[in-house]
Amino acid sequence: MGDTALITGASAGLGAHFAQALAAQGHDLILTARREDRLHALAERLRAAHGVAVHVHAADLAAPGAVAGLMRAIEQAGLGVNMLVNNAGFGARGDFAALDGAMQARMIDLNCRALVELAHAVLPGMLQMRRGGILNIASTAAFQAGPQMAVYYASKAFVLSFSEALHEEVRGRGVHVTALCPGPVETEFFEANAMADVAFRRFASGTEPVIRDGLRALRANRAIKVSGAANATLAFLTRFAPRIVARRAAAAIQRKRG
Questions:
Q1: How many CB atoms are located within 10 Å of the residue 99 CB?
Q2: d(CA 130, CA 128)
Q3: Is the backbone of residue 211 left (phi > 0), alpha (psi -120 to 50) or beta?
Q4: ∠120-125-131 over CA atoms, to 5°?
Q5: Quick one: which of 92, 24, 90 has its CA closest to 62?
Q6: Residue ranges of the alpha helices (H) in the chain?
Q7: Longest dimension (CA), the chain
């Protein structure tokens, strides 16, 4: 699928695990996230373990102009991007009216706008070379509305819809586009987004099957991959449940967690 992979949100969680998996497969890497110290520590480990080239660019992709700055740095380093793992994102739980408005706007900027800007930056080169892949990390949250996490769920629905459309646009042109939709995954996401409740985390999967599912689906050029049999069943069932049922069930789960 390519020689150099750009991974966003690579300093921890799924991003770091994608980096480890791709380095083990022999891919050179470009890692970006806000925490430069963590990026450099990860880069050193991957170089030592797998002998791949690992480039680091610390950036807050939610900030205006950050994606353009990242792409300039990549170009100036003489690098190309054959694979993009659009992993950066965050969520917040609470009533929409009570949560900080600026924070929720930043969530949209990171989860949606930056993801689109990155895809738009790398796709023309992939199409010209007739090879490459874009893996957008969505969520099972993409399949229904999410009261108490309204913006997060909506942002993941955007990622899913955008990925499906892009997949169809480039089908047959050598470029693969996949939306990976995991359920809860045991990473730092829980702590970072105030989701440390034990009951919810019982349903979290490990990172290894999620990474495996995502990379296999991208290789096979599947438009959507829901990771985990139970998650896939629930996502399938939401297609047939009345939307009022799905959103009230999601609201009940979120309130119980609160």
A1: 17
A2: 5
A3: alpha
A4: 110
A5: 90
A6: 13-24, 36-50, 66-76, 101-108, 115-129, 150-170, 189-192, 198-201, 207-220, 229-238, 243-257
A7: 52
Instruction: State the catalytic residue, choosing from 18, 143, 152, 162.
Output: 152
Model confidence over 95-142: pLDDT tens digits? Answer: 999 999 999 999 999 999 999 999 999 999 999 999 999 999 999 999
**DSSP readout, 18-29?**
HHHHHHHTT-EE
Q: Tell me the pLDDT band of 1, cut-offs 50, 70 and 90.
A: very low
Instruction: Mark whether 153 is an active-site residue.
Output: no
First to last CA, the chain: 42
Supply the pLDDT for residue 2: 47
Q: Give yes or no for residue 195 having a pLDDT over 90.
A: no
Angle at 42 between CA 80 and CA 70, to 5 degrees: 35
**Structure-token match 């957008």, residue found:** 136
pTM > 0.90: yes or no? no
